[in-house]
Design goal:
Structural class: mainly alpha
Number of helices: 10
Shape: elongated
Helix content: 40-55%
Order of helices and strands: HEHEHEHEEHHHHHH
Radius of gyration: 25 Å
Distance between the termini: 24 Å
Largest sheet: 3 strands, parallel
Strand content: 5-15%
Mean pLDDT: 85
Number of strands: 5
Low-confidence stretches: none
CATH architecture of the domain at 1-96: 3-Layer(aba) Sandwich
CATH class of the domain at 1-96: Alpha Beta
CATH topology of the domain at 1-96: Rossmann fold
């Protein structure tokens, strides 16, 4: 949910917040996230965050499930916020890596991988605390996520026997570049980023001197031009369109 303020812009507009909650529930939403990232969570004071949760949970009054964000830089603060959210009676708490705070993106992902997370929701393309979206940054972010995905899978030892056989096949003084094992695996053994340029300055200049933003935009344009809409079974599409039409009639009253 967004966080409404009063006319002064200095205080949370609790009346507006309650009215917004009613609008969302009446529109058919099945749950609400109180004090979310798009609700300027990172820029609110602690007492404002807690007040949003208390007012929101009380006004929802069990009509739909409620989730309270309790993200914090320190573990102790996070636990404290989660316990404080328990009293108003929220259904669950949401804890995110503190990407709006001090750690960089790589620092966050290394921590996530070391913690053994089995699901990561990446906010690709986010800028200004999710208040703006960059297509170029989206392309760069998803490439980084692909690299982290490869890293997170850990080492693969399934081809170890074949690698050992290659060692036996190549005689002393020769190399592995032309071996059957290398030819079969070199295209997939490495993950080579295309947007993160690691060339020397001279090579980068000779190739046009495109910065990350320009490379990201070019990548997105190619993705859009190459996109092919997936085919949907006609019966499924008809059922979905019928559902949408019925829900629109119900919402319009």
């Amino acid at each position: 949910m967004c966080t409404p303020f009063d006319a002064s812009g200095e205080q949370i507009g609790e009346g507006r917040d309650k009215a917004h909650i009613d609008e969302l529930i009446e529109a058919g939403l099945h749950g609400l996230v109180l004090c979310s990232g798009t609700g300027e969570y990172a820029y609110l004071r602690d007492e404002e965050r807690q007040r949003l949760i208390e007012v929101g949970a009380a006004h929802v009054a069990g009509r739909v499930p409620t989730i309270a964000q309790t993200t914090a830089l320190s573990t102790a603060d996070c636990i404290g916020k989660a316990r404080a959210a328990e009293d108003p009676g929220v259904s669950a708490v949401m804890v995110l890596p503190p990407f709006l705070e001090a750690p960089g993106e790589q620092g966050i992902m290394y921590g996530v991988l070391m913690a053994g997370a089995n699901f990561v929701l990446s906010t690709a393309g986010y800028m200004e605390g999710a208040m703006a979206q960059s297509y170029a940054k989206y392309a760069i972010d998803i490439e980084q996520m692909e690299l982290f995905y490869r890293l997170g899978r850990g080492p693969d030892f399934s081809g170890l026997d074949d690698a050992v056989e290659a060692i036996d096949e190549v005689e002393i003084g020769n190399h592995y570049l032309g071996s059957a094992h290398t030819l079969a695996n070199f295209e997939t053994a490495f993950s080579m980023p295309s947007l993160m340029d690691h060339n020397s300055y001279e090579q980068w200049s000779a190739e046009g001197g495109m910065d990350a933003n320009a490379r990201g935009i070019a990548k997105v344009r190619k993705m859009l031009s190459d996109y092919e809409e997936p085919r949907l079974d006609e019966a499924i599409e008809e059922a979905l369109l019928d559902f949408i039409a019925r829900r629109e009639r119900e919402i319009d009253g």
